[in-house]
Structure formats: structure tokens, C-alpha cells
Amino acid sequence: MGQCGITSSKTVLVFLNLIFWAAAGILCYIGAYVFITYDDYDHFFEDVYTLIPASIIIAVGTLLFIIGLIGCCATIRESSCGLTAFAVILLLVFVTEVVVVVIGYIYRARVEDQVNHSIQKVYDEYNGTNTDAPSRAIDYVQRQLHCCGIHNYSDWRNTRWFKESRNDSVPVSCCKPNISNCTGTMSRPGDLYPEGCEALVVKKLKEIMMYVIWAALTFAAIQMLGMLCACVVLCRRGHDPAYELLVTGATYA
Fold first, then answer.
1. What's the pLDDT at 212?
2. In terms of Cα–Cα distance, which of 24, 22, 44, 31 is closest to 209?
């Protein structure tokens, strides 16, 4: 019965190591996705410390690949030292992912204040040229999120670009894609996106942060299972005489 339980624990442990390798790729992908998306919205969110959870996720993903290798070798070779190191490293990574979740929630709560503080400044710097970074950022966000202005398209009236252009129109990035020959004129509001960008940018950034939080929670739970299986194998190895004889016999064979 003890041998059966040990075999089951070892099987689960090997399976978990394979999951760790898959998790390493997934975590690195999520971290890279956060970095790439942040680059598209960085003008609306000046706090670069928001990237700390994504950076930790990438580091954890890289470490998980090494952990999976250590775990597989330790499980196959029946190494007590290897399994102990495996369990300790998993515990450290588990703690790290809990920290990621906490930091993620902290910065997620700060997203709205950061966007509210920055977005007016970005719109004031708009000049309508592709060579200008704030202009590219606004045009990109308005096209991608299907929005116009800060709260709605009428916010453009308060910008320097609108006052200097004097044509009573908004950027063509405010135009709905199904409207042909749209010039952005305010005399045809039905051609423009009705929703403002501020709320949608906040929503998008919060969603991105939730990807990091849920990824950390999910793989923390998997690592907890890995630690338990490693502990079961270690404990039964030390207390089950039948298992010791099995290991010894296999070694001499």
C-alpha cells in the first residue's frame, strides 16, 4: 500500500514538472505581453513601477523551467537532496508569486489615478503628426479602443490642436471604421466614436494587470501541489522500510 502511494506521488510529481515547463512559457508570454501593451499606453501611465509584477513574472517563468528540470532529475534518480532542493525552491517561488499578487493589486488600484493625472497632458500635446509620440499614442488608442476624446469627442474643443486648426473637427482616428469619407467634423457626430478614452484606457490597463494576478495565483496553486508531492515522497522514503529496500535493491541491481 505504501509503495503504491509513493508511486502515485512520484507520478503526480513528474506530471507537475511537465506542467512547470509549460507554465514557464506561459508566464514569460504573459510578462512579455504586459511589456508590449504598456509600451502602447505608456503616455497615459507614467508609473514605470507598474512593470515590476510583469518583470517578476518573467523571472519566475525562467526559474520554473530550471525547477522542472531539477524536479524531473530528482524524482527519477530518487534523490533526497534533489527533492529537498526542489521543494525549497518551489516554496521560494510560491512566496514570490504571492508578492506578485499583492503588488499587482496595489498597482491595479492606482491605475485610475495615474491615467486621470496623465491623459489631459497627453491630449494637450497632440499636434496631429505621425512623428510626434503623444500624437501617435492618442491616434492608436482611439482606433484600438474605439473612443474619442477624454470623456467624449467634445473634449477636443479644449485642446491646443483644435484651437489652432480652426476647422471644427477632431482627428480622423475618432471616425467609425464603417463610415466612408469621414473627415472628423463635429457637425456629423454620428460619424464619431461616442465614448471617451479615459475609462477605456483604465479598463484595459486593469485587465492587463489582472492577467498577471490570475497567472500568479494559478501557478502558485500548482506549485503548492508540487511541494506537497515532494514532501510526501521524502517523508515516505524516510519512514517506509519497504520503500528503502526497493530503492536499495534497485541501486544494487
1. 83
2. 31
Residue located via cell numbers 509503495: 3
- Are 115 and 147 a contacting pair, CB within 8 Å? no
Evaluate if pTM is beyond 0.90. no
Burial profile 152-186: b = 16 or more Cβ within 10 angstroms, e = fewer: bbebbeebebbeebeeebbbebbbeeeeeebebeb
- Of residues 17 and 9, the one with the higher pLDDT is 17
Q: Give the tens place of pLDDT for each residue, 13-45.
A: 666 667 777 778 888 888 888 888 777 777 777
206 Cβ contact partners less than 8 Å away, ≥ 6 residues apart: 108, 111
Which residues share a beta bridge with 169?
Answer: 185
User: How far is it, in rounded angstroms, from Cα 126 to Cα 59?
Assistant: 37
Question: What residues are paired with 192 via a beta bridge?
Answer: 175
